[in-house]
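Standup notes
- DV: blocked on the single-chain target, sequence here:
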Amino acid sequence: MKTTQYFIVTFLLLLCFNNKATAQFGFSHEIGAIVGPVAFQSDYGERHDISTNAGNTGYGIGLIHYLNFSYKADCNCYTPETYFNDHFKLRSEFSYNKTNLQHFGEWVADKKTSLTANQLRAMRGSTAVTNIGMQLEFFPYSIRDFTANIGSFGPFISLGGQFSFFKPTAYSEMGPGLGQLPTVTPIKYINAFDVKGGTTWSVVSSVGTRYKLSPLSDLMVDLRFQYYFSNWVDGLSPDPKVYLENRANDWNIWFNFGYIYYIQ
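- DV (later): unblocked, structure below
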């Protein structure tokens, strides 16, 4: 709870900084909300398996804020026409996503009857992640032209970073002792289990488009890739030197739907 409050305070401080920058440099603001499904890729399931990709899914929600460099709210006028002002926006974000996790794929197929297969089938988990960060969005077409035309589209790509607080959970339907007892824990997860939670950085990249709904509002869709600099976001981290299939850090793909309002 304290960590979540820290994220909220930090996000508000970012908004205050952006407000100060607006007053000093003449930017304008946009605010919005996003929501959508999340596919979480972790040590649960099999790599490159369709059932894993479809099964380990959850949801995400977020608040977003933009600095619009092409328009000056203090004078209700455009900024000097430069390439940067007409093609870039800075996005701040506070978001939350949660995903339920279990093993899918070949090693838990019905035909598998070994102890390890039964242990894998019995494992259940989840992870909840709170993020705060920034992305720089690039619009290949003119932001001014998009803003002036109702019904137009404004495609974009973005790159940025986020700081994340994660809290995983895990248990076995075979009984207590997951992570310690070999009777319920697959051998690869012995001493590779930690659900205390923690923090990590991540890199975020997305591709999407806006739709000009009205002079002061847009709809948005974007497909985001987020790669965490930790393999503990799901609470599991088998030895990557022994279990090569688990060598990658955790990551997710999030398909966002959003609404954005222009503040003047």
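- Follow-up: The chain has one domain: 2-263.
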